[in-house]
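Q: Convert this sequence to structure tokens.
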Amino acid sequence: MNRNAVAYPSAARAWAIVTVLTLAYIISFLDRQILALLIEPIKEALELSDTQVGLLLGPAFAVFYVTLGYPAGLLADRKSRKVIIAAGITVWCIMTALCGLARDFRQLFAARVGVGVGEATLTPAALSMISDCFPRERRARPISVYMMGISLGSALAYLIGGQLLEPLLARPPIEIPVLGIVQPWQAAFLVVGLPGLLLAVLIAIIREPARQDVNHALEATTARESVARAMGYIRQHWQAYSSLTIGLSANTIIGYVASWNVVLFQRRWGWGIADIGLSLGLVLLICGPLGTMLGGAMSDRLSRAGQADAAMRVTVVGIVLMVIFGTLYPIVGTPFMVLALFAAMVLAASAASATGAVALVMLSPNQIRAQATALYWIVKNLSGLLLGPVTVGLLTDRVFGDPKQVGSSMAITSAVYGVIGIAALLMGARHYRASVSNAGP
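A:
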């Protein structure tokens, strides 16, 4: 019997924590994805190229992952995780609002860097907290629920944003006291960003769960010692960590390629923002949660059947299907075929994203879990943000030289990086199986 089992919170309290953290993840993606709906008006107002748009969608976030991601994970392994999350929410909501005050590319880029603090602080601490709410064999489902925040946040951005932005963008500039004249696209950032501050207060007052699955060999009394022991453990199991991280980097890259979906429908078929938002939002709202729950349920079922690498197995299948559908959907001939194949991709991507996080948690002992998660998130989001949106913009600008060929750029990007990710997962599968049993009870 696990001697720490009695310390787990009640089911009601555990799922309440999962719910609040999932809501935070939803808000994170809502604040991030709103930019994708506003690409064309921002591009026109600030006179941007597709390459500059790609920089806003991607590398603007990557700057913060480099400077804050690992320190946030280190703090989460040693300090109050709810305080770290509440502080992160406060910063990213304020910076989202500040996007609405940007007057040129540099100001908007700087504000988007600040929004990246959400990814840097939230997930390492959140996964650590969720893991301490449930026994090892029951973690896949709650982590999958948390990972639904990706699709739910994106869906709400499209559904709510699409319906609100089209009439808003048709209005003349708005005069706001103190702020002066604000363009409609700028007002959208203010409306989306500021309400999230209430969530920071809610996070701050929840009761944090006690830490579980303690591996005393990895305990440390100082931050330097904690880093050294975490790096030593990760280095010892580098094949397992690297294959999982590279494989899930493909998931992230293709996910950020989808940031160009709004532009794809606008340029190829002339759809309006409201119609695009409704269509893409419904796909994400239905298929995203369904994919995460299916992935989590399948992983739990295989785990109960004695498969120690259950989460890794589901992740591999999900990535393979994601690459296939992600390559096909941007280049098919009708918008309805695009939506059908995109829906299939979202199902597979959501399952892989959820079980990939589960696989990482299973691989990492408690004392280094947030640090391992932070490193994982840094690498996969750096690659996703640096390579996904920017590669599409560069191919469209420099190779095709035709804005209407954005679909071809999306397909090429997904295919190339997807094959690399699949290869990494397959080569590292046996190393993962050998390493996961060392992570603790």
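The chain has 18 helices and two strands.
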